[in-house]
Amino acid sequence: MATTSQKKTSAQKVYDTFIVGAGISGLAAAIKLKKEGYHDFKIIEKASRVGGTWRENTYPGCGCDVPSSLYSYSFALSSKWSHLFARQPEILSYLESVSEEFNIASLIEFDNALENASWDESRHLWVLDTQKGQYLAKTVIFATGPITESQIPKLPGLDTFKGEMFHSAKWNHDFDLTGKRVAVIGTGASAIQFIPQIQPKVKELFVFQRTAPWVLPKPDMPLNETSKQVIDKLPIIQRGWRKAVAGSLTAINVGLRNPGLLKPVGAAAKQLLKVQVKDKALRKAVTPDFTLGCKRILFANNYYPALQADNTKLIPHGLVQVEGNTVIAANGERHEVDVIIWGTGFDVSHPPIGKKIINAAGQRVSDLWKDSSPEAYLGATLENVPNAFLVLGPNVLVYDSFITLAESQLNYIIDGLKKMKSKGFSRFEIKSDVIKAHNEKVQKHLQTTVFNSGGCKSYYLDQNGRNFAAWPWSLATLKKRLLSFDLADYDVAYEAQRSRSAA
């Protein structure tokens, strides 16, 4: 088949590296490349500002469930956080300030989305078609993130709904919810944050819950100006804070790998529910029926109070049908509403970047992922996709900060780019047997983790029940594996080999 890579592009500039996306991963990639003395790279961003998921998600109450001290770059600690757990506007502001501080903003071509990335085997180059033209690059870093494609179920009668309807990731701030009858679909990480914010405004709030999540108290507190000044003047405090948070998350990860260790925590959480939720029927409905940690652990102090408000009704069933402005639950319960807000998360098992990548065999990567979730090597390289990296790809999820994970992967990626430059090879591709053996081992060791054995259906599992998200070992093990780009894992070709192949 004819691909974009067959266009005549010989006169174009060839970049050493092309970065797609200016969220947390893309910014870190650019900063680390500059630090290593790389300047011949191009960054494109589909939006008009940096921030990724923290730019897109602006729903009321949006914030991070990882403490601020850890949800920040290791090379750009901040003393400006107003709470132990940062809110979305602060995180976005932080990312923008970092991009300015490290002179990255001026390097980004905004409002320019990738349309196709095609591998040109004859020249060992990527041909990148964007909204603003075509580019060539020796290597590509796809830093588009895993949380980008909002998900709305296709339900019977949805097109008959005459009220207002939007997903939490595309919040309609122009619509006033005051006095409205609102149905919230889903009780995941976003929903438990915005439900307490909208509950006091609405006339009636119907919360559709398919599965009760584990919601633990959030150890949050405000940081006043005095606290910020002390942290600013004594960086050792922030480094110590960061180390302590990392240590506590390491302990959680041990439990996720050894579910038996979490049973006492789960039992204590259920006892706490007796204090948090007085009504027995409601308490039973919000009590999880799976092991703590099987699905994402949520943290909130105001979610259960919002569910117990007079104008709120929890419906412990999924939404299955819509008839006009009537929403119908799986148990047949019907309610008239003016607004539907989807808190149904994202399609993370089929990353949208796959629709844009055409591999060395001329195949669109999303077609290969159609009936299964993606596989990668250390979440960074894909089979038959040469000279390219993913950041935060499959099976690197550890209960920690995404920023920590991205930085760890970028150590691996940049080591690969440095070896490519120093050794002079023009093509590298993960070996088929290496990626196969890696993923077989990952899947084997995931079987005993809480994600696979905890008795729940989570977004970690694809439609075939395969865990495409989690890393089955410790963060320390992942970091160690990502310290060095081992050329023995890759098929490597040099310029002379490319020339002979083309001839």
UniProtKB/TrEMBL annotation:
<dbReference type="GO" id="GO:0050661">
    <property type="term" value="F:NADP binding"/>
</dbReference>
<dbReference type="Pfam" id="PF13738">
    <property type="entry name" value="Pyr_redox_3"/>
</dbReference>
<dbReference type="GO" id="GO:0004497">
    <property type="term" value="F:monooxygenase activity"/>
</dbReference>
<dbReference type="InterPro" id="IPR036188">
    <property type="entry name" value="FAD/NAD-bd_sf"/>
</dbReference>
<dbReference type="InterPro" id="IPR051209">
    <property type="entry name" value="FAD-bind_Monooxygenase_sf"/>
</dbReference>
<keyword id="KW-0503">Monooxygenase</keyword>
<dbReference type="InterPro" id="IPR000960">
    <property type="entry name" value="Flavin_mOase"/>
</dbReference>
<dbReference type="GO" id="GO:0050660">
    <property type="term" value="F:flavin adenine dinucleotide binding"/>
</dbReference>
<keyword id="KW-0560">Oxidoreductase</keyword>
<protein>
    <submittedName>
        <fullName>Monooxygenase flavin-binding family protein</fullName>
    </submittedName>
</protein>
